[in-house]
Automatic annotation (TrEMBL), chain A:
This protein's GO CC annotations: signal peptidase complex
Protein name: Signal peptidase complex subunit 3
UniProt function note: Essential component of the signal peptidase complex (SPC) which catalyzes the cleavage of N-terminal signal sequences from nascent proteins as they are translocated into the lumen of the endoplasmic reticulum. Essential for the SPC catalytic activity, possibly by stabilizing and positioning the active center of the complex close to the lumenal surface.
GO biological process, one term: signal peptide processing
Species per Swiss-Prot/TrEMBL record: Musa troglodytarum (fe'i banana)
UniProtKB/TrEMBL annotation, chain B:
Lineage: Eukaryota, Viridiplantae, Streptophyta, Embryophyta, Tracheophyta
Organism: Musa troglodytarum (fe'i banana)
GO molecular function, one term: serine-type endopeptidase activity
Family, similarity comment: Belongs to the peptidase S26B family.
Membrane-protein topology: Single-pass type II membrane protein
Enzyme class, broadest EC rank: hydrolase
Compartments in which it is found: Endoplasmic reticulum membrane
Name of the protein this chain belongs to: Signal peptidase complex catalytic subunit SEC11
GO biological process, any: signal peptide processing
Length: 173, 177
């Protein structure tokens, strides 16, 4: 009646069910935590542009900018027991007559540990700021910090914080 | 292997009504799996609500064999979201993060894998600079580690798939209520 196969089947089914319930519970408990993680007031950050290293028009007519800036951030409150990593990136966001919203990532960083979630550093743009046309001269650009909390299991949480804005020079370098 | 002999014995002594019951229950299993899949498609709005990560280009966030749950809504896609997209001429969809986004009436998107040095222009079709909305299959909202290994193993070693299906079928047919 209770053959080997029957027992094996029951054992497998039960353990899979248990795992599924655990994963579900982890996500459910995260839901209580996400208002905190998603609220910008818990994240401390600032960024200032120090220098425009490069500002030119490419051969295809697209403006290209390289920057040096200071970043300081503290995303420690985002870490919980179910956090595998926090992906942070600094995006330049601006408006042009043709495009309602341009978001371009300038610098990103993966934080794996709560101890490394608070730092200050001077960086150059990892990825150049390239426009789709030549609209960048004198343009106001917002620097926005985005973060993406990636869990060990469950729901992923994203949010952003406006840090500062600056104006690009009127002339190419 | 006493249970195997028992199983074979029970197949021999099956009655027609019993066989029909088993066929119906087998059909129920297949159809309920189909219902769940199609239902998920309706709820999430994505043509493929669950995907398995196949490459290490998003490590350490996503590893090979992890499962992602996708959602596709009418909300515009923003930088920082992780999307699954199809490139013309490539069969396997790619999971990467939105790196740049330009709103030109229709949204232009450039993606990049967290673990890759450069953006994805080299992966796109020849001469393609941007992804548009119709390339996107969905954005990743949920994450489940390791479970996708089951499908990876089954696709790479089909013999295991056939063994598993055979064993399950035998179990369903020979099981006594």
């Amino acid at each position: 009646m209770h053959s080997f196969a029957y027992r094996l089947n029951t054992l497998l089914t039960f353990s899979l069910l248990l795992l599924a319930v655990l994963c579900g519970a982890a996500s459910f408990l995260d839901a209580f935590n996400s208002p905190l993680a998603a609220s910008s007031s818990h994240v401390q950050a600032s960024a200032q542009v120090l220098k425009v290293n490069r500002f030119r028009r490419q051969l295809n007519g697209a403006d290209e900018v390289g920057l040096t800036f200071n970043v300081s951030l503290d995303v420690q409150p985002l870490f919980t027991w179910n956090t595998k990593q926090v992906f942070v990136f600094l995006a330049a966001e601006y408006e042009t007559p043709k495009n309602a919203l341009n978001q371009i990532s300038l610098w990103d960083h993966i934080i794996l540990d709560k101890d490394q979630a608070k730092f200050q550093t001077k960086v150059t743009t990892k990825y150049p700021l390239i426009d789709q046309g030549s609209n960048l001269r004198g343009r106001k650009v917002d620097l926005i910090l985005h973060w993406h909390v990636m869990p060990k299991t469950g729901r992923m949480i994203r949010d952003k914080l406006h840090l500062s804005d600056f104006h690009l020079p009127e002339a190419y370098t | 292997m006493g249970w195997l002999a028992d199983s074979l014995d029970s197949i021999r002594t099956l009655q027609i009504r019993h066989v029909l019951t088993q066929v119906v229950s087998l059909g129920m299993i297949v159809t309920s799996a189909l219902i769940i899949w199609k239902g998920l498609m309706c709820v999430t709005g994505s043509e493929s609500p669950v995907v398995v990560v196949l490459s290490g280009s998003m490590e350490p966030g996503f590893k090979r064999g992890d499962i992602l749950f996708l959602h596709m809504s009418t909300d515009p896609i923003r930088a920082g979201e992780i999307v699954v997209f199809n490139v013309d001429g490539r069969e396997i969809p790619i999971v990467h993060r939105v790196h740049e986004r330009q709103d030109t009436g229709e949204v232009d998107i450039l993606t990049k894998g967290d673990n890759n040095f450069g953006d994805d222009r080299l992966l796109y079709a020849h001469g393609q600079l941007w992804l548009q909305r119709h390339h996107i299959m969905g954005r990743a909202v949920g994450f489940l580690p390791y479970v996708g290994w089951v499908t990876i193993i089954m696709t790479e070693k089909p013999i295991i798939k056939y063994l598993l299906i055979g064993a399950l079928g035998l179990l369903v047919i020979t099981s006594k209520e």
